[in-house]
Amino acid sequence: MSNKWLKKAAFFALLLGTIVALEQNFQVLRLRNITIPTLEVLPDSILWPRVSSENIRYWPLFYLDKDKVIKDIEENIPVTVTIECTGWGSFSFMARPLKPKFMVFWRGSEWFVADGGLMWSVYHPMNGVIQAQKPEENMIVIWSDALGRDSVKHEMAPEEIISSPIPLSKLEYWKKLLEDSGFYENTKSISVFPEGEEIYVEVLMRLGSQRVKVKLQASGENWGLLFKAIKNILKDPEISGYDVFIDTTYEGKILVKKERKSTGVW
């Protein structure tokens, strides 16, 4: 080996030794601090158990592991998290609560669905700690247990955060169609269920003392025209004073069935 390479090797060995000595004596790579300006959203007791002793001893390791920390928190707590390096060995931890858009009844329990399509149990242990969780929309959504069998096959734990088996965009689309029809304010719930290869929606509305159930194709096709026809149907004195079931899923016709006398009791 030439003197040139020997000198380079000696230099790097000296440099490495200096770094090791500095680290042993001054712990220059130690994690200095993690500031948490959103403690009112999420307590620091959620973060620190996920920070390993190696992460504390060598902050570059925490930098490399921060995405895993974020993933673990977001899969178990209804928040979105960001962790940013703010200086040598210093980090900022930010948590923002997911905001419920709809409440869904599914698999024998109640769930919140937020923007982005994430959902979690109404009984999640962190709900009360994060903030008073309340869905933005009053309309209740009921899903058949058969929905989501392919995407969510396991039994969910109470603290689990999962992706909604029905896209939030679809719920918002149905809501808009109901708003455009003028029936949204009267809508109490939407039930979504499969029959054979098709998916259907059943809208439950309260019009005065009258309960009206309307079965529709989930595609939303022709809802506008169908609701115009339904408004005319509901003017028929023959069904005045009765709860009514209206089936719009047959081609070229709408079936109307009078049920019990309207009592106004729900």
Secondary-structure map with pairings?
Blueprint lengths: L2 H24 L6 E3 L8 H4 L5 H5 L1 H16 L4 E9 L2 E8 L2 E7 L2 E6 L3 E4 L5 H4 L9 E4 L18 E2 L4 H14 L5 E9 L2 E10 L2 E8 L5 H11 L8 E6 L7 E7 L5
Parallel strand pairs: 1-3, 4-7, 7-9, 11-12
Antiparallel strand pairs: 2-3, 4-5, 5-6, 6-8, 9-10, 10-11, 12-13
Helix pairs in contact: 6-7
Structure description:
With 266 residues, the chain is an alpha/beta fold. It folds into three domains: 29 residues; 66 residues; 162 residues, Rossmann fold (3-Layer(aba) Sandwich), CATH 3.40.50.11690. The chain contains seven helices and 13 strands. The chain has a ten-stranded mixed sheet with strand order 8-6-5-4-7-9-10-11-12-13, with helices on one face. A three-stranded mixed sheet has the order 1-3-2, with helices on one face. Helix 6 packs across helix 7. It is elongated, with a radius of gyration of 29 Å. It starts with a helix and ends in a 5-residue tail after the last strand. The mean pLDDT is 85. This is Cell division protein FtsQ. It comes from Thermovirga lienii (strain ATCC BAA-1197 / DSM 17291 / Cas60314).
